[in-house]
Amino acid sequence: MSGLSRRELARGAVGAVALTAWGPALAGRAYAAGDGTSGDGTAGGTADGAGQRRVVARQAGPFEVLALLDAHGPFPGRTRDHFTGAAERDWERAERLDPAAFGPDGTWDLDFRCYAVRRPGGRVTLVDTGIGPVGSPTSRWAPVPGRLPRVLTEAGIGVADVDSVVLTHLHSDHYGWVVGPDGTPLFPGARHVVQHAEVASLDPGDTSLSYVVEPLRAAGLLQEVDGRTRLVGDGRGRGRTVTLVPTPGHTAGHQSVLVEGGSRRVMVTGDVLVHAVQWANPAVAYRFEHDPAAARDTRERLLAEARRHRSLLATAHLNRPFIPAG
């Protein structure tokens, strides 16, 4: 989520966590309690003790889009210190839109969420991989360990089902479960897709290089793309695709994922929207944006297009996984 966290963590050592301990959590193929969904799209048996929905599903034509909750917790500091240009009416509207984001004493409570796009036949594209285990690069500030391996099992997704992993950008709370501390990829049968501009923008000492880019390159699993790229097409004509869409600003090579299923479109936004105050007013800047002007333009353009097409927005950090664009 923040460039600051990356620079801080570049100086820290990654603790040892056995990759073999993660494997059994990903071996299952059944939902924890039933394989259906309730009326609101929540997979059966996937609410945790706090009532948070760990798996929430929405259908987009032939694609099932699954919101996967890796973690929930507070972000360091006070919310209003992280956002500039927000009027009081923007904060009031944001609190109506996402009341769970407003913690005690002005703190910001947020979800850390990944998404899976399941195609007919069961093959899966995973979008981002969350905060990771204890010892991952987010350990100094995020509520590790994340729960993604267990949540994937609850969603009926095994390691072998994942044939592509899209990294919206290379901030540590979005790549935590890509590899283990020894550099072994968790999804060895998947290509890991990132924009070339994102990789090219990294400083030589950036943790993302040593923790993600170099291990994936060594394993032959890193795919760098330039610009808008069709990732999946089901062969049934137009409007049934999964497309990578450049959405720069939060980082230099940030990308979002557009799932088009005929009459239903879902845009997985990554960090284009990190807080409901930016949904209330897209001009509001976030403290850790690489290029605030570009981020604002991207946000305004994405929301305008989503409204035109009546798309659902699938968000990484709002406490609602799917929100209407309007």
Give a verbal description of the structure:
- The protein is of the alpha/beta class.
- Helix content is 20%, strand content 26%.
- It is built from 7 helices and 15 strands.
- It has helices at residues 3-9, 88-97, 148-154, 196-200, 207-219, 276-280, 292-309, and strands spanning 55-60, 63-78, 83-84, 107-118, 124-127, 162-166, 191-195, 222-225, 229-233, 240-246, 255-261, 265-268, 285-286, 312-314, 322-324.
- The chain has a 7-stranded mixed sheet with strand order 1-2-4-5-6-7-8. Strands 9-10-11-12-14-15 form a 6-stranded mixed sheet, covered by helices on one side.
- Strand 1 (55-60) and strand 2 (63-78) form a beta hairpin.
- The protein is globular.
